[in-house]
Amino acid sequence: MSRSLKKISMLAMVSIMALTGCASANKPAADPGKSDETEFKVSAEPVTLKFYVNVTRLSPVEYNMFFVEPLKKKYPHITLEKLEGNLEKLVLGGEMPDLIFSDNDWHMPLRILDLPADLTELVAKSKLDLNKFVPETVQAIRNLDPNGKELQGIPVTRNAGALFYNKDIFDKFGVAYPKDDMLWSDVLELSRKLTRMADGVQYIGWDPRFPDHIISPYTQPFVDPKTNKALVDIPLYRKILELFQAHYDIPGIVSGKSYAYAEDVFIKDKRLAMQADWVLKILSQLLEAEEKGGAPSWDLVTNPTFEDKKGKGRHALSDMLVITKRSEHKEQAMQVIQMITSQESQMLMSKFFRIPVLNDPEIVKAFGTESPLLKDKNLAAITKYAPTPTPTPNIYDKEVQNLIRNMRAQMALNKKDINTVLRETQEAADKKIAELMKQ
């Protein structure tokens, strides 16, 4: 979102208050004689919860398999109504979700709209045991509150980074397959061997995707919270851009306006030998292509790192369920969360290649076992590295992130040197933040 927190929050609050008739003002005051530590009793009257998928990929099949059908069995009084469209427009139009399926990387737009409720009290009342989760997934969500007090979501599944590769291209050029625990320098060397023209086809050895993907294990913020200045022109990004520059210097990588080769080139064109990315994103697309008989012969290894982060994973990325502040059915929404984080549900999701959040070796071991398309794949690479901590988010993160990603084109197409790219991007990011702060 390009508008400032103040402007959007005010607009959202005015609209919501008008639509709800300030319902909260009509609620009776709490009885001081009653304890807050009451038993978690939820009405079994039929209720419809409005459900919105924010940015996390959730196919119709997964939605039915993981949410709709289990709810019919476990809580038949709860029905989900899936909302579609732009979230801000839905909220301002009176369509307030009760539950939002999102992730911690895209939580700030929800905070800008003042949507997430603090679930601390509901967790206590429902006796949801947070100790059963992979610790990093809960911490990633706790970190979303700058004051460190609120819990604005519950982890449902998680994501991880990995290096996917096309076995056919390696076979074609007689190059050994990638291995677990590689460094980025190892990947670069493989890319030099695999980037070549053959039979009229330009093969690309590797695509590094985005600088913020490479920086992920470092827990590096986009914005300094004390100064509201971007953190771009720093030694760490210089190190990363040196890797990008070495990549662009390989003959054949930059051709005309082509310099970035994502999943289409890897999956559809089958010209890209290696791509490091978030597992669930690429895995779902690979499996979809495989079912249609059009995917490459692929496998995966651990996400590469620099030497100083060897054995460390990308930052913790938790798919999460958020209950909205203005939901009138928070207890029923918590029942949905209880169901989806149960051992039964987590085992089901794990079997169908959703990375579980429960700290249970048997559930982790079951990952992908119900998908014959994943047979004999190096699935252990996905969870071999523990996730690293996430930095505290800032409302200007996405603006800075977009500019950081644009540094690739400045180097590859405009042939700018690293010093110039870092300086100009820093200046552009600081200018953008200053403009937004005035709105």
Automatic annotation (TrEMBL):
Cited InterPro entries: Bact_solute-bd_prot1, SBP, SBP_1_CS
Record Pfam families: SBP_bac_1
Transport listed as a keyword: yes
Keyword terms, alphabetized: Cell membrane, Lipoprotein, Membrane, Palmitate, Signal, Transport
Biological-process GO terms, alphabetical: transmembrane transport
NAD is among the record's keywords: no
Family membership noted in the UniProt record: Belongs to the bacterial solute-binding protein 1 family.
Protein name, entry field: Extracellular solute-binding protein
Species of provenance: Paenibacillus solanacearum
